[in-house]
């Protein structure tokens, strides 16, 4: 029995001639976005299936021999067993930090930024929330990239862009302060008696509002690294 209905390249949103680095980056992005643990309970089953397909596609395309076989036959044997839990364990703080280093300042980030800018119609706060590893400290850099694209006619200028930014940021900070108290309750539920540093606090806040990639990776980076047991990365076969 074969998985004829799965297009592995389409699942990872990469071309058939994609390099291993491109495949790995696509996997990290999609795995972070679609990780079941960052979605509401009623969506977990659906997201779990999606995550499993992403993991399965990566397990084949990241292996030179399996990829060559798939490219030749267009099929993957059903008995090619992959344990998603092993791949979840690979989304470690160190791996995500490497991805972050490669992503920030890259052409891929610029492309994502302009796409999000257009989708958000210039709303700077939404841009920060949607872009990978978005942060207030990066606003000037984001603005420079977007303004250059506006001048070159690659994107439209929206009236909301650069309007009342400081006022919007102040409101955002107040909301974060309010959520900090809620994060302390979340810490207790997670079995953490105290929040030892700002990074851990921010991770808890972000995990409660998990609507984008770096919110989950911050949670993962600060908590999974401390409490999750490492799993074998060896793929299993029946």
UniProtKB/TrEMBL annotation:
The keyword Membrane does not apply. It comes from the Eukaryota. GO terms for cellular component: cytoplasm; nucleus. SUPFAM superfamilies: Chaperone J-domain. GO terms for molecular function: heat shock protein binding. PROSITE patterns: DNAJ_1, DNAJ_2. Residues 162-193 form a coiled coil. Keywords: Coiled coil. Residues 7-74 form the J domain. PANTHER family: DNAJ HOMOLOG SUBFAMILY C MEMBER 9 (PTHR44144:SF1). This is DnaJ-domain-containing protein. It comes from Rozella allomycis (strain CSF55).
């Amino acid at each position: 029995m074969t998985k004829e209905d799965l297009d592995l390249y389409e699942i990872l949103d990469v071309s058939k001639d994609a390099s291993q680095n491109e495949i790995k980056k696509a996997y990290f992005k999609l795995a972070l976005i679609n990780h079941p643990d960052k979605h509401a309970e009623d969506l977990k089953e659906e997201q779990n299936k999606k995550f499993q397909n992403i993991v399965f596609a990566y397990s084949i395309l990241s292996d030179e021999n399996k990829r060559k076989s798939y490219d030749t036959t267009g099929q993957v044997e059903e008995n090619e067993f992959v344990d998603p839990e092993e791949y979840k364990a690979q989304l470690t703080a160190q791996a995500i930090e490497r991805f972050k280093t490669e992503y920030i300042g890259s052409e891929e980030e610029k492309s994502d930024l302009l796409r999000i800018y257009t989708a958000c119609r210039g709303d700077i706060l939404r841009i920060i929330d949607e872009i990978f590893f978005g942060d207030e400290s990066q606003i000037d850099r984001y603005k420079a990239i977007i303004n250059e694209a506006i001048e070159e006619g690659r994107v439209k200028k929206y009236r909301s862009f650069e309007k009342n930014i400081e006022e919007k940021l102040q409101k955002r900070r107040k909301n974060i302060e309010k959520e900090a108290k809620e994060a302390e309750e979340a810490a207790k539920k997670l079995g953490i008696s105290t929040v030892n540093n700002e990074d851990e606090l921010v991770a808890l806040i972000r995990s409660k509002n998990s609507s984008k990639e770096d919110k989950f990776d911050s949670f993962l980076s600060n908590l999974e690294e401390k409490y999750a047991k490492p799993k074998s990365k060896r793929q299993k076969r029946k």
